[in-house]
Amino acid sequence: MFKKVLIANRGEIALRIIRACRELGISTVAVHSTADANALHVRFADEAVCIGPPPSKESYLNIPALLSAAEITRADAIHPGYGFLSENAEFAEVCEKCKIKFIGPSARVIRLMGNKVRAREAATKAGLPLLPGSKGVLKDAIEAEEVASEIGFPVILKAAAGGGGRGMKIVREARAIRAAFATASAEAANAFANGDMYCERYVEKPRHIEIQIVADEHGNVVHLGERECSVQRRHQKLIEEAPSPGVSKELREEMGRVSVKAMNEIGYNNLGTIEYLMDEQNRFYFMEMNTRVQVEHPVTEQVTGVDLVRTQIRLSSGEPLWFKQSDISLKGSAIECRVNAEDPTTFAPWPGKITAYSTPGGLGVRVDSAAYENYVVLPHYDSLLAKLIVFAEDRDLAIKRMRRALSEYVVQGIRTNIPFHRAALEEDAFVRGEYDTRFVERLQASEVGTQRLKRAIEETP
Q1: pTM of the entire structure?
Q2: What confidence category does residue 192 fall into, taking pLDDT thresholds of 50, 70 and 90?
């Protein structure tokens, strides 16, 4: 097992990793920008190193600075968390060359599955179902037009690297392709330093279902069931739950079986998530793979009892998997609401100082957060403030518990999307579990939804 882990991240995920390391008896090193000097992950780690000014490119994305911090603190492993360099194959490769263990898949696997185009090619060879789309990276907007005309509109342009909804554009007619391609490519280049694009057919009313994979370095692969991630805006997830109300036991077994088979053929190792689109006939199609821990990993932890961050670390140290597929069963229901520092109506980021802060509690309530009273939400980074997770014996009680927890959450001094979550959990479509990725659009367009949101804003402390 590692003696000291450097955490190449910030916020709640850095705290989550620190806690897992502490339970494993591993010392931790926090890195931080000058703006994050008073952050909780800096306070709670055993050591801390400043790696640069606030902009991510000069701090959390600065590979030489991170490796220097690991060298001077004698860290023998680096955990990248999610975002930043977590799916950067070059970073994983440099770590390996420097004899520092990258906690995650190998550089080979990240290079194969972290890039959306290469992942589609690998998925095809491994037998995963795919939507019609471009066979590789699009050369330019002209080729995008040709592919779109061939597979039929609407189509979606996607960044080959990265994720989180950036570098994605839905196009419904040929004349809009060139402008959409230019915009999406520029956005991708700015976010991921890679403007490569690909194209696939767009499904109008899909559910976004993902399968959690764990794999050791000895050829053993297990899945931990699915997560429902269809409540999203601009391709950014807002509410996730496990298990999905739209997936039957038989479909779960089928999705899990084909996912495990594909990962065995690819030679995947460590933690990973296979993301699928599911249409109205419950046909599922491979979309992409995230070769890292997901923001929404807690809902899987709650229903399986498997600590995914501890598992990541143990697998990276070379341990063989200590459980089999037959040991995994899903119990109860878990829901996660991402609490963001943003306007609940427009979703515009809302940085600033938190003047009062109190989290909900009680049976089955978990809050993963790095926020506190007088904490300043910075404009330089993602607006995620906290993850509110509830667990209950069934989905009906989980919804009621989440409503109760949201009503207790106090964040003052800035705006958050807590009122949005309160309104969303009252929507009939969500209560019935019959919703898709356009749920948020319908809520905002609905008079009833608008009134619910207005009332929630008034009632939120």
Answers
A1: 0.91
A2: confident
